[in-house]
Amino acid sequence: MNQILTIGGRQFRSYFNGPVAYIVICIVMLTLGFFFWNTFFLFGRASTREMFRWLGLILVFALPALTMGLLAEEKRTGTIELLITMPVTEAQVILGKFLGVLGLYAVLLVLTLAYPISVSTLGNLDWGPVWSGYLGLFLQGSAVLAIGLMASSWTSNQLIALFVALTLSVFLWVLDKFLALLPTSAASALEWLSFDYHFQSMARGVIDLRDVFFFFSMTLFALALAFRALESRRWS
Amino acid sequence: MTDVMIDARDLTKHYGPVTALKNATFQVNRGEVVGFLGPNGAGKTTTMKILTCFIAPSGGTARIGGADIFDDPIAVREAIGYLPESTPLYTEMLVLEYLEFVGKMRGLSGGGLHARLRRVVEETSLGDVIGKSIGELSKGFRQRVGLAQALIHEPPVLILDEPMSGLDPNQASEIRELIREIGRERTVILSTHNLAEVRLTCGRVLIISQGELVADDTPDELAARAGKPRFVATLRRNGHSASDIHEAFSAIGDAQSVQEQAGAAAGELIVEVVPKGNQDLRADIFQAAVSANLVLLGLEQRGENLEDIFRQLTTGAGASS
Lengths: 236, 321
Fold this sequence. Notes:
The complex is a heterodimer of chains A (236) and B (321). With 236 residues, chain A is an all-alpha fold. Chain A is 81% helix and 0% strand. Chain A has one domain (2-235). Chain A contains twelve helices and no strands. By secondary structure, chain B is an alpha/beta fold. Chain B folds into two domains: 4-224, P-loop containing nucleotide triphosphate hydrolases (Rossmann fold); 228-303, ACT domain (Alpha-Beta Plaits, 2-Layer Sandwich), CATH 3.30.70. Chain B is 34% helix and 30% strand. Chain B has a six-stranded mixed sheet with strand order 6-7-8-3-9-10, with helices on both faces. A four-stranded antiparallel sheet of chain B has the order 2-1-4-5, covered by helices on one side. The chains are: A mainly alpha (236), B alpha/beta (321). The A-B interface holds A 2-3, 6-7, 10, 14, 17-18, 77-82, 84-89, 233-236 and B 15, 49, 52-56, 74-75, 77-78, 80, 82, 84-86, 88-93, 101-102, 104-107, 149.
């Protein structure tokens, strides 16, 4: 456990030594600000529904930029060799890396609290859906980050990792938007796989354990595949 | 624990159709510094990656300090300090920050960690750059950071992949001194393709060629295998002719041949004397010079010659052992 935290802590701090974290944070805050306030006064309601709608989408695009280098860059520079030959298991490396980026994501989410706080000064904000929305964002974000880590474990090229992670997570987000084109049986299965379907109910203030379970298992599944990829190096 | 710290048996590694390593078997004892020598692509790095459990062998196995690389990779990694080829480090970190990270990963903490940090920083002379980011450091300093991270947990076994590459002669001699120091109580394997290096640092040489171990010997024994020693004397002519001098040395009983060599300064002469057997002719050469009234300016024994053996063993010519 100590080693997981040490790896995670190093990863978390290293984000602040490079530009990527700052760029991602700035872009997320600015685009969110634009889309949110753009329509906020038209609705004239002290609600954060719109914010969560936009933030869910923005993060699906932004988070793969945080994960692209996690393993790919270590493989390119060779530092992975020193990391793996320390007394740690591959699982500890994967979990440490994941915790590191999850910590940065938590910081990003805390920063976005500025929006609900300013809304609450304008009117009577119901904080219930805000907290459940944040829980949803956190869970959906975990799944996106795990998918990004998995993509990063497959290649030593950050751009390929970014592209694969973006494709997968945008695909999973957009899935429930095309259901009308499909036969009903396939539609309900695909809807169940869609990020946005599970996230939107949480953004409305409904915490359904099935949604929690969905994001949780998605995260675990992607982390397990990343573990497999990292471990397969030994036998190649 | 036994004194055999590294026990590799029949290590074999295939990369697809390519065989990088074939049945490599060797032992290294506590207190030995072993040079792992071979041309590029011979299998040195592959062997080191197997010993550190970064990759698994396709066949065979190895034990490090008694722990098997398949059964107990964590114990193996705990016992090893490893410096991979080209010293991959987190360049955005500060030197101290990085060494702290490695120390924590190695299970050190608190006062123990700080004592060890102070010690390795002193050993590798990193004091002046401790607050700099690794990316700013010169190649020599990076190499020392690499060594420091390998030493921080006082591992009984050190595996160093080309620790001298890219260092200037001063840096190289400092690192060499450090490695010899470490090698007194611990076990060191270092790979290199610099033969002079091996002579200076290692008590034993493993030569590997095309994935196969072709020699396992001390540098001196290896050199002896290649043939006779030669003695090269530099003399002041003192008005003597070359043939006089030639005669004076040919009179040495054990001398097989005497040859004048090119490259002497004005008024000087360089002579190479080859003995009949393996005799040491240095005393005889001195006596001969004195009795012929020649001034001996320099005398050198050239036991020939690691380069030749290396070439022989690694190009197939006589790779029979």
